[in-house]
Amino acid sequence: MNLFKKSLMKMFSFPLAFLALACLALASGANAVEVAGYSFAAPEGWKSSPPSSSMRKAQFSVPGKSGKDAEAVFFYFGSGGAGGVKANVDRWMKQFQNPQGQSVKTETVNGTKVTFAQAYGTFLSGRPFGPKTSNPGYAMLAAIIEGRKGAIFVKMTGPKEAVEENSTKLRKMVADALSK
After folding, report:
1. Which residues pair with 54 in a beta bridge?
2. pTM of whole model > 0.85?
3. Where in the chain are the domains?
4. Which helix (H) or strand (E) holds 121?
């Protein structure tokens, strides 16, 4: 190898190695969310975005194959905050006009109670007590995790196809966080 190639390799090897490691760190940790002592690794393809309100701990754009995205949001209000499981599930179901496919199931995941709620139909989006926008063909899958430091709420809403395509990923993300 000639002297010129050797000096180029020496000059660029450290910065390139550093850049590669930085990219790996960003890629692996950019979609990890810490909430109430649990670490949730967002599924591949979910894109983190800045929370749109102070009530949200984190939010993600969740891609659908049709090109229409759903949204997954994490809420945490501390120990005893935001009411109980039933109050939240009832409120979420009321965000639909004539909700269909309603399902509420509580299970234990690695020693922690998790309630999964789902429905579909016309979703009424908007701030509490504010004007609502009708979104026909939407669905919701939510998890209420009764964690050590209080309930963690993970709620995915959006076009029905996008929510259904990502429901297994949301459930796995919750199970993985609770297994650590």
Report:
1. none
2. no
3. 1-30, 31-178
4. strand 112-125
